[in-house]
Amino acid sequence: MKTESRQSFLTRAGGSLRRGSTRVLQLNLGRLCNQSCVHCHVDAGPHRGEVMSSDVAADCIDLIDRLDAIETLDITGGAPEMCPSFEKLVRAGRDRNLEVIDRCNLTILLEPGYEQLADFLAQQRVRIVASLPCYESENVDQQRGRGVFQRSIQALQRLNSLGYGGAIMGTDLSLDLVYNPIGPHLPPPVQPLENAYREQLYSRYGIVFDRLITITNMPIARFLSQLRRMGQESHYQALLEDSFNHATLPGLMCRETLSVSYDGHLHDCDFNQM
Fold first, then answer.
1. What is the pLDDT of residues 202-255, one digit of tens each?
2. What does residue 109 show for φ and ψ, rounded to 5 degrees?
């Protein structure tokens, strides 16, 4: 917060924030990505060279073995799949019977050299949390780049063909979609939006998924630059503060997550890492 400390804000809002057991190990494998999204809090893109080294990846596997309470290995980026250690880390998590999450931008599944990636994810029973900020092509392409929507649809159809969308497909392959707003707005209530996603994606493209997750854009990195260009930084900050809901505190990721950056530094969540 700009005007007061985080703790004083929480106290004033009637909440508290204490850390519990580390149940989730989240690895940010770097800032290399095949997309350059305008809201990206990592400032990732095709020309970023930062990726997790094999030595740091080996340290992360060692850390997995030292964290007795860990249940989930959450892999993100950039496009985490572009890190040379991605498959090694996925296998390490699955070999230890952890839930493994791949935070996937979808279009990476169609890039040259990654043609077998979808099959690998299915074989390893990886849960996919996939970015799709709208079911309309104009909105997606505005935020993520020209042609991204159509390629995302192709990738989702490919995942469905492998059995992803398990609740409907009758498999154990989970496919969640992620919505985030375009511009200085908060996401709408999730259930009506999820219903619209289901209807539109299925009726237009035959696509099914398990659930929709909504996220609020953080005023950092590229999105902060966009807010400043629009003259909306103060307005958006006030919107976030005025909309704070202390009932969300029990579910905050920083209470049970250990976040590791590509260069091996430790944080309590990916947003604070950035």
1. 999 999 999 999 988 888 877 888 889 989 999 999 999 899 887 888 888 888
2. -65, -15
Q: Is 38 exposed, middle or buried (0-12, 13-18, 19+ CB in 10 A)?
A: middle
> How far from 262 is each of 104, 126, 205, CA to CA, in Å?
17, 21, 36
Distance from chain centroid for Cα 193: 18
Residues 6+ apart with CB under 8 A from 137: 149, 150
Q: Rounded to two decimals, what is the model's pTM?
A: 0.90
Question: 């060279």: which residue's tokens?
Answer: 49
Task: Return the residue matching tokens 């995302």.
Answer: 152
Instruction: Say if strands 257-260 and 211-214 run parallel, antiparallel, or are unpaired.
Output: unpaired
Do the Cβ atoms of 105 and 35 come closer than 8 Å? yes
With the C-alpha atoms ordered 110, 131, 226, 7, is the resulting torsion angle positive or negative?
negative
pLDDT digit string, tens, across residues 149-194: 999 999 999 999 999 998 888 999 999 999 988 888 899 999 999 9
The total of other beta-carbon atoms located within 10 Å of residue 243's CB is: 9
